[in-house]
Amino acid sequence: MKKEDVPQDLGALGKITKEVCYATDESGKYTTQLSNGWDVKITALDAAWQDVEGRIAIAKQKVLNNEASPILFYMEKALMDTEILAGYTGFWQWQIKRHLKPDVFNTLSDKKLQKYAEVFNVSVPDLKTMPVNEA
What we know:
By secondary structure, this protein is mainly α. Helices cover 52% and strands 9% of the residues.
């Protein structure tokens, strides 16, 4: 792509930051060029965020239906899976999968709940209740 053809479509971050792209200059050599964004990339990112928002909504509904513990909601909201959460909490993945069950979650010690609360940056009461303003 030529330097003058680098897309300058204003995206969600276009007013905050610019993206570095590689393009060819007048002599055909590669150089860097700043871009405000690209419609194709913006569309792809919007679709990805819609998917994330859908997963969060599904997790919220599962918690409200008592099919999952609030850990699922906060995991989805933080874009985590059990492997990542295990790395942050020190729990094994199989333990986290157990903690996703409401009956098991309700018996967790305050110490374990505190680990989750610290990772999700919420209080233990908020972790337990998933307040409406969080959901």
